[in-house]
User: Which sequence fits this backbone?
């Protein structure tokens, strides 16, 4: 049996924070001892014998003891004394807290990610698509099979609204879990589209400058022709029409 002092010491191992929402001890009687010493029955929620056989491990989604509609993930650590397991110390983490803590920062924080159990196909953490809770519900069977086999690869899928989404998934070192990161095609090519728009504006300005330059060249050429013609038909000393102009005028008169 665990003494009150031992219970207090073990419960102090974990710190309740933004990621860990609760710390407790699961006893062989299938009773949970909470931080303040209160006891709650774990019947129909956890099975001590089953959890003890797994040793140190992280569970899949399990109902919360205080709210049956809320699901949590528990990290179990056996409490051993003289080679005998006296209980299981565990910390609770909600999928929402994990999603906030582990959210990818790439593509301006526009990525979403999932943690999937390869054996059960269950989505443990899912801020990608709330409609999908299991690999069997994915629109592509080959995608589900690839994840179950623990492959590391990239894939492009089409969403229900017709938009394209890029997926990257790989095995995690925790349990038999797979992490999947998703980002929309729009976000992937956002920078490229910005560069494309900038290049289009630059090209428009370049064409406009070229057109203006051509008009200026035509205008300058016209002025140059008029100047040369005036110089050819004007006497330099008097500024009057010279012989060339008189002869041309007589030619027109004839």
Assistant:
């Amino acid at each position: 049996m665990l003494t009150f002092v031992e219970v207090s010491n073990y419960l102090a191992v974990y710190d309740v924070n933004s990621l860990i929402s609760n710390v407790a001890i699961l006893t062989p009687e299938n009773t949970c001892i909470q931080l303040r010493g209160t006891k709650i029955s774990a019947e129909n929620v956890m099975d001590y014998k089953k959890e003890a056989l797994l040793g140190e491990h992280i569970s899949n989604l399990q109902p919360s003891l205080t709210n049956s509609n809320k699901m949590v993930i528990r990290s179990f650590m056996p409490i051993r004394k003289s080679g005998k397991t006296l209980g299981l110390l565990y910390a609770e983490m909600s999928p929402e807290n994990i999603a906030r803590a582990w959210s990818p920062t790439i593509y301006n924080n526009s990525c979403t990610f999932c943690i999937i159990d390869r054996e059960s196909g269950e989505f443990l953490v899912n801020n990608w698509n709330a409609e999908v809770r299991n690999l069997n519900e994915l629109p592509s069977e080959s995608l589900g099979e690839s994840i179950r086999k623990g492959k590391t690869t990239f894939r492009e899928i089409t969403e229900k609204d017709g938009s394209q989404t890029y997926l990257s998934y790989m095995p995690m070192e925790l349990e038999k879990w797979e992490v999947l990161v998703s980002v929309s095609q729009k976000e992937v090519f956002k920078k490229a589209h910005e560069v494309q728009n900038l290049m289009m504006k630059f090209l428009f300005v370049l064409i406009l400058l070229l057109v203006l330059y051509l008009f200026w060249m035509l205008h300058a050429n016209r002025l140059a022709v008029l100047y040369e013609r005036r110089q050819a038909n004007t006497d330099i000393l008097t500024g009057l029409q010279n012989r060339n102009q008189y002869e041309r005028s007589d030619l027109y008169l004839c």
Remarks:
- The first strand starts at residue 22 and ends at 26.
